[in-house]
Amino acid sequence: MSDPRTETARDLFREGFSCSQAVFAAFAPGLGLERTQALRLAQPFGGGMAHLGLTCGAVTGAFLVIGLAHGRTRADDDAAKAKTYQLCQAFAARFAAEHGALGCTELLGHDLRTPEGVAAAKAAGAFESRCNRYVDRAVTLLIELLEG
C-alpha cells in the first residue's frame, strides 16, 4: 500500500499544480504548514524555477520539505544547518543517479523558457510521462530519508 502523501502528490499534480507544489504540499500539513500556504510558497519553483528550466520542481519541492522539517530557526544552530544540507545533498545525489539529471530541461528534454518549448513538451506528453515519475520518486525518497 502506498503512502497517502504519494497519493496526495499525484492528485495535486493531476489537478494541474506544479511538481514542486505537489511534493511540498503533500508533506507540509504534517509538518505544521497549511496546504494553501504550501501551494503558494512552492509556486515559483515549478518548471525548473519559474519556467527557467533549472532545478526540477520535484527536487525543489523536496528541498522545501527538508527545510521545513529540519531547517534552522536560530542563526547559531549549525547542527540544523548541517543536517538540512546533508539531507538535501543526499536527496539530490539519489535523484540524479536514478534520473540522470536534476535540471528540468534535461529531465524533460524540452526548454520551458519559451512558450514554444512548453507547447512542445505538452505535445510530446512529457509532463504526464515523465513528471509523474519524478513526483512519485521524490515523495518516496523523502520518506526514506526523513523517516527511514
Salient structural properties:
single chain; mainly alpha; 9 helices
Would you kindly provide a written description of the structure presented here, covering whatever features stand out?
This protein starts with a helix and ends with a helix. Helix 2 (19-27) packs parallel to helix 5 and helix 5 runs antiparallel to helix 6 (78-99). It has one domain (4-147). The protein has 9 helices and no strands. It is 71% helix and 0% strand. The chain has helices at residues 4-15, 19-27, 35-42, 46-49, 57-70, 78-99, 104-108, 115-123, 126-147. It is mostly helical and 148 residues long.
Supply the number of helical segments: 9
Helix content: over 70%
The value of Rg in angstroms is 15 Å
Q: Could you spell the SSE succession in H and E letters?
A: HHHHHHHHH
Please identify the structural class as seen in this structure: mainly alpha
The percentage of residues in β strands lies in under 5%
Shape: globular
The count of DSSP E runs of length 2 or more, i.e. the number of strands, is 0
N-to-C terminal Cα separation, in Å? 17 Å
Report the oligomer.
single chain
